[in-house]
Amino acid sequence: MRRFGMLFLVLSLAGLSAAGENWPQFRGPHGDNRADDAPLPLTWSEHKNIVWKTAIHDKGWSSPVVWGDQVWLTTAKADGKQLFALCIDRATGKVQHDRKLFEVEGPSELWARFNSFASPTPAIEEGRVYVHFGTYGTACLDTRTGQTLWQRRDLHCDHWRGAASSPILYGDLLFLTFDGYDKQYIVALKKQNGQTVWQKDRTIDYKTTDGDAKKAFGTPAIRIIDGQPQLISSAAVATLAYDPLTGTELWKVYHGGMNVTAPPLYGQGKVFLCTGDGGLRLLAVRPDGRGDVTATHIVWKVKNKNSVPSRSSPVLVDDLLYMVNEAGMVSCLEAENGELVWQERLGGKFWASPLYAGGRLYLFDEDGFGHVLAVGRTWKKLATNKLDDGCRASPAVAGKSLFVRTLTHLYRIEERD
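Below the sequence we write its predicted structure tokens.
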């Protein structure tokens, strides 16, 4: 019996170091909401395939991130006066760290009405987690002790209805996005100490003085194009690509729209962009140009604009794009030309982005329903599951586990014998 226990421990530790065991940022390792080979469960409920369920205090819509034996996320008082980072033990669901990081005097009342004060998702790596609350502060924490290693509270904009752009890591840099009512810029910090490496204002002709039309909530993505990294960052009205090391602007495409949320997707030689509220809605762009490429590098624009989400993000699997809009309309499009393959209505309201794993799509709505669909050129719903509360955060995956944050709890969902 003792020998069996030691063998189980060795196998468990080996599993924790295997590929696919970490989910380090918003929408996963590559920012595309894919966990390709993860053997996630098809069905679950409050009494089935739940490893643990942990209450998360106060209010936050940030997604969980996973590294090793820890799960991190943020939360905040509903009025925004106190901002927190939480660490949950991956094996047991117990709270390891609950740090109050910032106190805020006079937080925006608009945030409380339209958003949470903890919507940006953290970024995590070995030994460090980076948490961001927009204009109210950014901090780097030691994942073992939970103590603050550095913080910045001098990077500001008027987010108007709240912050939602998540930080991302690349090499030695941490990237933050500030597309506010009053100013719009992106900044790269040294991840070791938080010092600014470069900061660039958006070079966008918004054609308006209305700051409400200049806001965006997008998270950038690093994509390797022709062997070179590009920091592709969607804003209101336009998307820009930068050299991540220097901030040099590489190309720009105008597409209209505001309140952009979806990170850029890349595949088949094209960047796929959602433009939020208004504009072209969904388009594909070749990312090999320089300067303003609006007239030369747009490959296609979607025809059925009403089906395109303005809150959640599409997912690309092979040669097909899948997406769900706020009203529960699920669409499958040809990535090559944007043509509709199929479209069905699930119903419900969706903010969380679809997740791909093991040949399936996982979609979570605001009423607690988790739908599982088969990927492919034919619509096929495999299961509909129910939790007590709904989601505005996108799910995370590590190993065989699905980590789902509802409005009140964090779940670890896994196939159980």
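Residues 86 and 307 are 36 Å apart (CA to CA).
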